[in-house]
Amino acid sequence: MKKAVNINHEFLQNFRWAQKQWTQLTRTHQGKWIAVFHNQVIASDKKISSVEERVKSLTKKKPFEDIPLLYVEDPHCIL
Fold first, then answer.
1. What is the pTM for the complete model shown?
2. 40-79: per-residue pLDDT in tens?
3. Does residue 3 carry a pLDDT above 80?
């Protein structure tokens, strides 16, 4: 029997917002980590540790568990 996965609704809502805004985010936050909370970017930096610290100082939420942290790549970069 498969175990049910519990997805944080707020996390999912913020993640979906970031997906919809991705084109704009690649223009404004290219090459940086971002944290999305309440459908807005609350932290942005080249270092993920800086974004995590900012999230902790602004909210009582846990990065990655409650708030999506996403890396915004250069859309023209071919890996």
1. 0.84
2. 999 999 999 999 999 999 998 887 788 999 999 976 766 5
3. no
Instruction: Evaluate whether 68 touches 15 at the Cβ level (below 8 Å).
Output: yes
> 31 is written with which tokens?
């090459």
CB atoms within 10 A of CB 6: 6
Query: What is the chain written as a DSSP string?
Result: -PPPP---HHHHHHHHHHHHTHHHHHHHSTTEEEEE-SSSEEEEESSHHHHHHHHHHH-SSPBTTTB-EEEE--TT---
CA distance linking residue 79 with residue 76, whole number of Å = 10
Which two structure tokens, joined as six digits, stand for 33?
Answer: 């980590």
